[in-house]
Amino acid sequence: MDIFLTTLFIVICVLLILVVLLQKGRGGGLGAALGGMGSSAFGTRVGDVFTWVTIVLTALFLVLAIGATMWFRPPVRQAIAPQFRPMPNPRDPITTETYVEILAADETDQIFYTTDGSEPTRDSEHYDLNPVKVRPGMTLKAIAYPNRGRPSGLVTATYGVRAPSPPEPTTRPSTRPARPPATRPAKP
User: Fold this and answer.
1) 51 in a domain, yes or no?
2) Residue at which a domain ends, from 18, 41, 71
């Protein structure tokens, strides 16, 4: 379909150029320059025939130009979700402030992020390749916007706080009353 549409468009362009050049203008046109060929080929109403052929070819040219623009338009892409480095690890949560990089799959995408748990938009903080400072317990959210296309999905990471260690078990004295030792009968 691509080759057919391109070939048809080129043929219409060439025909339109030839018909415009063959039309009788103020100076007689290209037909008069070649010995009056244009007026004798179509009779006395040559201007009307070339005018209608020009109108039809121009209409075809415009329809094909619009159709080719729609057909050959590159697809709208959706941005790929950004990634965090380092990723939060539930088994090993952070205990101090950590710097997190936000990586985009395509370097032309713009990344916006929030650290307060709200949804990022184009009005949020723009990521400018400087790592983001994350404190324990903070939720980092990011989204990528391409120059042309749909934004990526939302990426969320919660950098958890290390749970306090359970207290060491201590030995306490038993609160049960002590039993008297069992007495055995004496052996004879």
Assistant:
1) yes
2) 71
Per residue in 28-83, pLDDT tens?
Answer: 555 555 555 544 555 555 567 888 888 999 999 999 999 888 888 877 788 889 99
Give the ranges where the chain is alpha helix by DSSP (H).
Answer: 2-22, 29-33, 37-42, 46-71
Tell me if 155 sits within 8 A of 82, measured CB to CB: yes
CA proximity to 137, closest of 119, 162, 108, 111: 162
Q: What domain range includes position 62? A: 2-71
Strand, helix or coil at 186?
Answer: coil
Same domain, 33 and 87: no
Whether pTM exceeds 0.70 = no
Cα 177 to Cα 183: distance, rounded to the nearest angstrom: 18
Q: 34 and 50 share a domain?
A: yes
